[in-house]
Amino acid sequence: MLCGPEGNMLWAGRRICYGPEGVVLMTGRHIHDNMRKAWITNEYKEHLWNCATATTLPEFNHRMQQFSSFDIEAYNWLKQIPPQHWARSHFTGRAVSDMLLNNLCEVFNSKFIEGRDKTLITCLEYIREYMMKRIYNFIKVQKKCVGPLTLSATKIMEKNVNWESQYTARWNGSDKYQVQGTWQDQHVVDMVERVCSCMKWELTGLPCKHVIAVLNDKADNGDEVGELHTYAHRVHWLETWKAAYVYKVEPIKGRAMWPISECPIKITPPLHKNQPGRPKKKRRQSAKVKSQKKGDNVASGSGSQSHIASGSGKLTRKFIQVTCSKCKIKGHNARTCKGQGGK
């Protein structure tokens, strides 16, 4: 759990994880889930993500100032959370990642749903077989890759190359360049330290559009710049990706051929008491997800209302006007009919 500036423990019991900097991180989505308890509209979400995605301190301070002008109470609530846990502008770049979500662990969490309620050995076997299949699938994708970088890194680099034509680089006669573009986008690139004042080169490990503009300027002046991928961090190289999957999960024989343990003590499983009701496998949904599903049901219904119960997929009698079988008048049924039709 995180602590406020005065030692008060905030967001107790909420979901937290380890972020790219190796410190406790409350992801932007979970911060927004907590924020929705008091501030519901999408404007608050937009202000939160504008602050979280800012890569420089001046931009972060400007976004926070805009948030304070929008709602000072929500701004004071967000200000209590240390920004190094959720804002890109305060990341050091040590992890070579600017991710603000914990999707890396969520993808594994979603795959292990079927094996959670199994016994220990069966659960471990499920995980082992899943890892065998996952490594094999990634090896097939890697064999189809063409180029020195991974697929995601290649897409980002192509996007940066397309933006490069709108920037002009000016050399200071030493190791630094001033790169100027549209909308007062001006930054300083140090080619020796391999840093850019926009912070994206340090955060992601990939040359930003300002760096690519400098490389093109150096190439136009006859300097040898080498291949573009050499300016990317090695974590984005295809050979690094392949090295991560060089270790394989070995197949094993069936249980009938497993050796019998020589341990003299027979380990018995702990006593288990079945809880009432059917055991749940799906993750608990946040209030935001539930409200979105409810909104989708309303939108998919006939007219302005829906007859589908939220999350059940069954038809309900809500918003349906009944017709009396006696007098044929709408608004009541035969049990409550008082002869409105005159019969």
Automatic annotation (TrEMBL):
<dbReference type="InterPro" id="IPR006564">
    <property type="entry name" value="Znf_PMZ"/>
</dbReference>
<dbReference type="InterPro" id="IPR007527">
    <property type="entry name" value="Znf_SWIM"/>
</dbReference>
<keyword id="KW-0863">Zinc-finger</keyword>
<feature type="compositionally biased region" description="Polar residues">
    <location>
        <begin position="299"/>
        <end position="309"/>
    </location>
</feature>
<keyword id="KW-0479">Metal-binding</keyword>
<keyword id="KW-0862">Zinc</keyword>
<feature type="compositionally biased region" description="Basic residues">
    <location>
        <begin position="278"/>
        <end position="292"/>
    </location>
</feature>
<feature type="region of interest" description="Disordered">
    <location>
        <begin position="268"/>
        <end position="312"/>
    </location>
</feature>
<protein>
    <recommendedName>
        <fullName>SWIM-type domain-containing protein</fullName>
    </recommendedName>
</protein>
<dbReference type="GO" id="GO:0008270">
    <property type="term" value="F:zinc ion binding"/>
</dbReference>
<dbReference type="Pfam" id="PF04434">
    <property type="entry name" value="SWIM"/>
</dbReference>
<feature type="domain" description="SWIM-type">
    <location>
        <begin position="177"/>
        <end position="219"/>
    </location>
</feature>
